[in-house]
Amino acid sequence: MTEASDPETGFLEQLGQRVRTMRALRGMSRKVLAKVSGISERYIAQLESGKGNVSIVLLRRVSNAMGAHLEDLIPATEPAPDWMQMNIGPLGHFSSSTPSSDPTPVPENAKWQRRAFRDLEARLGLLE
Known about the structure:
Blueprint: H1 7-25, H2 30-37, H3 41-48, H4 56-66, H5 70-73, E1 85-88, E2 94-97, H6 110-124
Helix pairs in contact: 2-4
């Protein structure tokens, strides 16, 4: 990935990389993702390359089609300094911490998911 000229470009490139990686981890082709999500293959290619500005609704359709959480696709950014999470300790005392930005780990059953998506490709007649 090249160094982005502005924060939005960098964000879109990271978002595209995360979508591409998540799709690859699940063993899905763009063709299957397009069919399941109802979004064109061309648009998915643009999304994965960081071109174009995806709406949150389309990103949600992509995440649902891959069986992923929407928040796992969105690149982490540093929280604003005033965005704090308040925790109440065991004795009723408050402590503050910033929210975690770590993505959810990849599920243990990734091989099963790849097989399931290959089976779906075969059923949809998308295998080449």
